Amino acid sequence: MSIRVGHGYDLHRLVEGRPLYLAGIEIPHSRGLLGHSDGDVVLHAICDALLGALGAGDIGERFPDTDPRYRGIASSKLVPQVVALAREQGWRIGNVDVTICAERPRLAPHRAAMRARVAALLEIPATQVSIKAKTNEGVDAVGRGQAMAATAVVLLEKT
Ligand code: MG
Question: Three-class SS of residue 144?
Fold first, then answer.
């Protein structure tokens, strides 16, 4: 069986006056992620992991913020486009593993909802999606609550 692996990473600054979107769901918090889109680091990392596995560039190249079609677009609208690209090229998603780095809020209560949302966007069972969260132990910009980051690894299988 032919397989491909892809890795994605993203980080956005946390600012006041923005809703917090992670993995395509809104999470109650005093601040949100800054970005031309909704700043959803989880979905951006997943898109980059998929594009990486396909050898198809990155999210900034495929969905440039200079293009009015993508300015301010919800990240949940970008994911299906990348999934479609993978499918067109004859690949199906084996599994996705995500790690979110965020000092607060506590993400454990939202993990099941994030997992279900990512599974729905990727059109795969939730058992093939893993969402993990950790703090940065108070160290660096993420640890000081100035930003959130996420990494994602995806496995593609040839159909
Ligand atoms: Mg991003």
Answer: coil
What span, in angstroms and rounded, lies between the C-alpha atoms of 28 and 139?
A: 23
- pLDDT per residue as tens digits for the range 16-40: 999 999 999 999 999 999 998 899 9
Distance between Cα 124 and ligand 1 center (Å):
23
> Ligand 1 centre and the CA of 98: distance in Å?
15
40: CA distance to ligand 1 center in Å?
7
Q: Dihedrals φ, ψ of 86, to 5°?
A: -60, -45
Domain 3-158's class? Answer: alpha beta
What is the CA(46)–ligand 1 centre distance, in A?
Answer: 10
pTM of the model: 0.97
Q: Enumerate the domain spans of the chain.
A: 3-158
> What are the phi and psi torsion angles at 56 (to 5°)?
-115, 35
Distance 83 CA to ligand 1 centre (A): 17
- pLDDT tens, position by position, 40-94: 999 999 999 999 999 999 999 999 988 888 887 899 999 999 999 999 999 999 9
